[in-house]
UniProtKB/TrEMBL annotation, chain A:
Main location: membrane
CDD domains: ABC_DR_subfamily_A
SMART domains for the chain: AAA
One Gene Ontology MF term: ATP binding
Location relative to the cell: Cell membrane
Lineage top rank: taxon: Bacteria
Origin species: Lentzea atacamensis
Gene3D superfamilies per UniProt: P-loop containing nucleotide triphosphate hydrolases
Family: Belongs to the ABC transporter superfamily.
Protein name: ABC-2 type transport system ATP-binding protein
Membrane topology: Peripheral membrane protein
Domain ABC transporter: 5-230
Alphabetical UniProt keywords: Antibiotic resistance, ATP-binding, Nucleotide-binding, Transport
From TrEMBL, chain B:
Residues annotated as transmembrane: 22-42, 84-102, 129-152, 158-181, 241-262, 268-291, 298-319, 345-367, 397-420, 432-456, 463-482, 502-525
Domain of life: Bacteria
Species of origin: Lentzea atacamensis
Record flagged with keyword Transmembrane helix: yes
Coiled-coil features, chain-numbered ranges: none
Keyword presence, Nucleotidyltransferase: no
Protein name: ABC-2 type transport system permease protein
UniProt entry keywords in alphabetical sequence: Membrane, Transmembrane, Transmembrane helix
Amino acid sequence: MTSAISVSGLVKTFGPTRALDDLDLNVQTGEVHGFLGPNGAGKSTTIRILLGLLRADSGTARLLGGDPWKDTAALHRRLAYVPGDVNLWPNLTGGEVIDLLGRLRGGLRKQRREELLERFELDPRKKGRTYSKGNRQKVALVAALSSDVELLILDEPTSGLDPLMEAVFQDCINDERERGRTVLLSSHILAEVEALCDRVSIIRNGHCVETGTLADLRHLTRTSISAELAGPPNGLANLDGVHDLVAEGNRVKFEVDSDKLDLALKQLVSSGVRTLTSQPPTLEELFLRHYEDAK
Amino acid sequence: MIGTALIGTGHLVRLALRRDRILLPIWILFLVGITYSTTTALEELYKTPESRALLGVTANANSAFLAMLGPLHDTSSLGGLVAWRWGVFSGLFIAIMAMLVVTRHTRAEEEAGRTELISATVVGRHAPLAAAVIVAGGTSLLIGVLQALALIGKDLDATGAFAFGLSTASVGLVFTGVSAFTAQLSENSRVSNAIAGGFLGVTYLFRAAGDAAGESGPQWLTWFSPIGWTEHVRSFGDDRFWVLGISLAAFVLLVGVSAYVVTRRDVGLGLLATRLGPAGGTIGTPFGLAWRLQKGSLIGWSLALLVVGTIYGSVAQAVGQMVQDNPALGQIVQQIGGADAMVDAFFATITQMLGLITSIYLVQAVLRLRSEETSFRAEPLLATPVSRWGWVASHAVFALAGGAVVLASAGLGLGLVHGLRTDDLGTVLPQMLGAALVQLPAAWVIAGVALALFGLFPQFTGVSWAVVSVSLVITLLGPALQLDQWIIDVAPFTHVPKYPDIVAGPLLWLTGVAAVLLAAGFAGFRRRDLTT
Ligand SMILES: Nc1ncnc2c1ncn2[C@@H]1O[C@H](COP(=O)(O)OP(=O)(O)O)[C@@H](O)[C@H]1O
Ligand SMILES: [Mg+2]
């Protein structure tokens, strides 16, 4: 597999702020890659460097085999971008903006454009100043998704969309995946990344702290277990990897490192299990633990 | 009711003062400082009653002076001279101040969505408008009082000093009201400012046209202009304070109407309704987009200067007439070359002023780049195959070539009317087009400074307005203020050859300087980060 985006050791400072601090990021061709981090982590900065809008202080960035700062125009023919802050021209209608951005990228698929307008329930005849944040985002999304490009770079594209439109967005991204496009999706909406992404990179304070498939990242998480046993629990308290144990009579509740689950279950079974509920690790939890640890 | 509608005004006033803590002191310092230095300069120049009286005769016989500054009512004291030399401009500048401040804290805030945020807290419906009016109106009054004190500090008559200061303040108040109203009209702060600015321009022209031809002209026109009212106060002469009552009434009326409109419309919307537009577009190049964004301003400016040209063109002949009718002037006029030379001098002054005004258009066209950048609208464009060079060029062309169109319109207006009146269209029209277009290289230099700032020091792009103002003040007031020659030489318009003696040399090197500045701007922007 080839890399659509490969970034290593990227540093970017704004005066005293170190927005990116030795950042690595690797996105393979054809995958939907989640770029996850809290506000101010450096997601938008990374994306702007990839688009040649900002110049990195040091480190290397390659995009579709080219240098994002030098080969700007040639690379931009092959990608579409949805910014985090979409601001439209007050006097242009949404439809005019979609067509403008499409033409600048070298044309868009008419039929796809109409279909997307319908799916997103967007009226293209309204003037830019009258759109809400969500609708402005839809304009940028329709423009990007109806372009014929290899790579989509989306910076928190759903932050203004309601849940219904969020579902439409997810369908659209799945369509793009099937067409073999590469997608870099920055987000702090975990459910979205969980539902859509093949791989995820987690970034904090301008540094990539973790990257891999969702399955790869599970070793960092804990599963919550609550169970009713036949007799009093034994041995759980001393077991490696078990945390926050609460025992009341025959009931127990605890959390266990996901890779120690096996041992904990064996221990439970030895006491006889009546009922058992377990909650799988969510990305949310994984996320929290990374940022909790830092404090 | 009104009480609750105004809740939170105090907080908003403090917020506005904090946001403007640099801008407002600069305006105050500027308007008070020029009052003081003009007085000092005129005191040196016209020490004797005779010299003042002579100035009075020549000033009131010179249409260019009359159009630009209005009549000189009273030469018995230095104060009368100050009121004549500086009164109209003082009014123009304070009007711009009031306009920018009010729009910035009303419509611009609303457009940015911040009013919505604030309205959701404990802030009355009328509070944002009230706060803006208090800040702009209060600053106007403060400037007026300080101007009066500056004049009293120069040992001028206190009544006259307050008549002058309060006249300035009254223009500030009227335009506080005008902008409070235009802010209600459109959803776009740029449009609000354009309407208010257009009103300022038109009413300035009313008084210019009313004053230009002296007694024989349509002097009643000056009564339709807030700046005209300040002339009718006749500071240091009759000191007719009652005229200020008109300004005060206009202020109260405009603010009242605006406050009424506020209760009649939704936050974020304007009175002028927005309609649906086309579902698809035909724009497909950066230039196409720039044309769409800039054409309104280009057409508006061209039409405005065409009208200004027509007005000045129509009074030019009267300039010659007036000196012939005035025996006291006969000798002086013969010395400078007769009535024809007076008309030529009139055109030289007028075309220079038109050039200075056009430089405002050029800078505004260049600064569009910066506002596109800071509002995040440049980003999606530059993420397409559009090159940075192409994007900057798409707007810069409106400054460079657009400036030529605007100046040519002015020349066309001058030439057409003056040509028709003198029955010599064939020679006059090309002459006037030429006289207007020679101003272009100097205007390009100012645009070059703006583009260089944009490319190299984007955070300081706003300094371009200071450059425009300084160039305006130096060129118009420099000689009267007796500034050092090197300061006068810094202003590009100083070097523009005066009509009718057009020589190519200065035009070429001014163009060269502009080219270097533009190249620096382009190169700077290609190498820098996009910033907000
Ligand atoms: N133009 C800028 N000037 C100064 N600081 C900036 C600028 N852009 C971003 N930053 C800072 O860099 C950090 C990363 O910002 P950003 O990339 O926007 O984060 P994210 O998109 O993940 O929310 C933040 O601390 C932000 O304040
Ligand atoms: Mg961001």
